Amino acid sequence: MSPRKSFEQRLEQLRSTLIAMSELVEQELSTAMDALERKDVELAQEVFAMDERVNNLRYDNERTALLLISTQQPMARDARFILASLFMNVILERMGDKAKSVAKAIPYILQRPNLTISPELRQMADMGQAMLRDAMQAYAAEDVTLALQVAARDDDVDQLYGETFFSVLARMAKTKKPDKVEAIYELMRIARDLERFADYATDLAERVDFMVTGQLAEVNVDEWEEVRASAEEERAALAALKAARKAKKAEAESASDT
């Protein structure tokens, strides 16, 4: 086998493994959402095991990419493919972390077993997973048009996140029970994790654009006012959570004194 043929096979191996990693990340988020909706701690444990596999794949991919760089000294398009794959490898690992973060919230939510899980959370997860699938399809086909379409869809997720945030915040404002406030806050945090999952899918699309065109640029930039408003909203939610925890502590101290 010629050196070039061997090199091309290793490039294809890297591509295939990265796509398999993305499929595992998608499964990880799907399982986390199932566990959330069922309030199933045992199912959530499966998410942690999947995340460990995602982490292992990340390091395998890094070793493959670094070996290709050090032994083959790739140029131009091949070099961009390897670098883009390295960047995407890290992004996928972070997307897996977001799925794991959803699973981590379940024990807190179980403090209020009758708590209604906002249906918008599943909708956000479905949108993020579809963006992930299409971003990886764009990667496999080197399709810049599809990659840019993926990035454009992030605005839809951001809009749904905003609606979900205010809906959950309203639920926090209506309750006086500290345990329930804490559980509802976890729903808000999950919404943020899902919004970030979609952001990472946009990052994948940007790396596909770089891989094909050689241009590094953000393709979906948040306006400063949106960023500032989001930060202010999260500060308000954290303030409500701190007040609830303070009240819970005061109740516990009062009970111990009697």
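The record above closes out task 2.4. Task 2.5 opens with a second protein, given below.
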Amino acid sequence: MTLLARMLGAMLLMAAAPALPQDRGNDQRPLFPAEQEWLSEHNAARAAVGLPPLRWNHGLMRDARDWAEDLASRRAFHHSPDLMRQGQGENLWMGTRERYAPWQMIDGFIAERAAFRPGVFPDVSRTGRWSDVGHYTQIIWPETQEVGCATALNAKHEVLVCRYWPAGNVMGYRLDPGRHLTRR
């Protein structure tokens, strides 16, 4: 078997592997104030639609921090490659450096609720563009159980990355928070 075939096989196995909860070994320290605000805002949005709260995950936070630092250092703003996330969902936010409170960053995601409508993903937006509600739908995705967020700064901007396990926004699933999630 050629090296290319082996590498392709390994990549397919990694992509097909089930998502597993992230590292829980260092989950004992108390949350920093910003982390508590991010978690509280997520859980308030979930409670508003009858969903259980998310748990904070320090492994997800470390992954989020690594990507936020990468984006800030490159002055870039885009999602990480799917293979880097290993079953994690991702929300991104960017604003003027040190001008926003942690809760305001998450409220930017939650404000997308105004365009949300129940439906089979990706047909879940009143505008016809799921990207108009994708941050919000990740937050209220019924199967998502854990979150971790972090920020990084550059000279002008602050970048927030939140990672979720398991990832939401799965094509072909009906998202109706009152009724939870069903396969089409």
